[in-house]
Write a structure and sequence with these properties.
The protein has three helices and 17 strands. By secondary structure, the chain is mainly beta. It has one domain: Beta Barrel (Porin), CATH 2.40.160.40.
């Protein structure tokens, strides 16, 4: 390894360990951006008794994180200094979310979202400096308490919302869906990984839920600009107000965006969406979680095929445009390609 490269890694290590206790790994958290399946739901009045089921499938590949490190673990669990190296973490994930919507009163609907996540993590080491067999064993032992090559799966927190549709909002061809509700703490939570890491104990950064009931607020606006062209705006928000039983408090999360849709025929619509995802610090017992705090921008292109009997199929692709971690002293993380598929069916329409 060239001397200049070692110097760069050393500087990165000094910056990194000064703030994040060598724990930062944004790839360990779920990077799936929330999406809006409301854009192609139609502008019609919702009649009492209407029922709609939607299956959203999101697959992300080659999401990467990593950080320089100079610590190892001896066989007795004692932390020791070892030659400079880098933890490499890669993550592929799949989210399947079932959305159920029932109109219990004209233009009043209850939404229930049931997500199931699969997270496939791969952890490896890049050696910057020469190591002995003893040091290599200590490096791998230390890596394995922080990141491991493992697959994780389970239900994530459900979302329950009540929504009201306002037709003719701002325009005769416009409608607004206003929704409020709460998350349901179904997903598995973890013990404080920052404290466990300091103690040299095995831990997991990946969680499937917050362990708390988190308020939700969503606005989905769509309007026809012409007979063929439509505009949509949306904001999806979640905020944690208190700590769970493990003293974890989730971040404030907001996804906002706009899109233009073009209806080529009665059965085919194309759409291009620009979205911003912002997540503030999460906290462990009042301490900022170095794996949280992110702002990102993305472009999504999709096609909606409106088939017979209320069935619609929408494949799509999300491309990362840019991203920024809240602290410039934190870890680096890059999104990979993300593929989307939505299958929706209206009943009693």
């Amino acid at each position: 390894m060239k001397v200049s490269q070692s110097i760069i890694f050393t500087i990165a290590l000094i910056i990194y360990t000064s703030e994040t206790f060598s724990q930062g790994c944004p790839a360990c958290s779920n990077p799936a951006l929330q999406s809006s399946e409301k854009l192609e739901a139609g502008l019609d009045t919702l009649k009492k008794g209407n029922f709609r089921a939607t299956l959203n499938v999101t697959n992300g590949f080659d999401y990467q994180g990593g950080h320089p490190h100079d610590k190892g673990l001896a066989q007795n669990g004692q932390e020791i200094i070892v030659p400079l190296h880098e933890h490499i973490v890669e993550l592929d994930f799949g989210r399947t979310e079932l959305n159920l919507e029932y109109t219990f009163k004209t233009n009043w609907t209850i939404w229930l979202r049931v997500p199931f996540d699969i997270k496939m993590q791969k952890a490896s080491i890049t050696y910057v400096e020469t190591v002995t067999q003893y040091e290599q064993s200590a490096i791998l032992r230390n890596r394995d308490i922080h990141h491991r090559t493992e697959n994780y799966m389970g239900l994530s927190d459900f979302r329950l919302l009540f929504a009201h549709r306002i037709n003719g909002f701002l325009s005769k061809k416009g409608r607004l869906d206003f929704a409020f509700g709460t998350s349901l703490p179904i997903g598995k939570i973890e013990e404080n990984p920052l404290e466990l890491g300091k103690e040299g104990k095995k831990h997991l950064h990946i969680q499937f839920g917050t362990g708390t009931f988190d308020p939700l607020l969503e606005l989905h606006y769509a309007m026809g600009l012409t007979d063929k062209l439509s505009l949509a705006l949306f904001t999806i928000n979640k905020v944690s107000l208190y700590q769970n039983s493990n003293k974890y408090k989730g971040p404030f999360e907001m996804t906002t965006g706009f899109s233009f849709g073009y209806r080529k025929t009665n059965w085919l619509t194309s759409r291009l969406t620009f979205a911003n995802y912002t997540s503030t610090w999460a906290k462990w017992d009042g301490e900022n979680d170095p794996n949280s705090g992110l702002m990102s921008y993305s472009l999504t292109a999709n096609l909606t095929f409106n088939l017979k009997n209320g069935l619609a199929i929408t494949p799509g692709y999300r491309h990362p445009v840019s991203q920024q971690i809240l602290s410039d002293k934190g870890d680096t993380f890059k999104y990979g390609p993300t593929f989307l598929l939505t299958i929706s069916h209206k009943f009693n329409d």
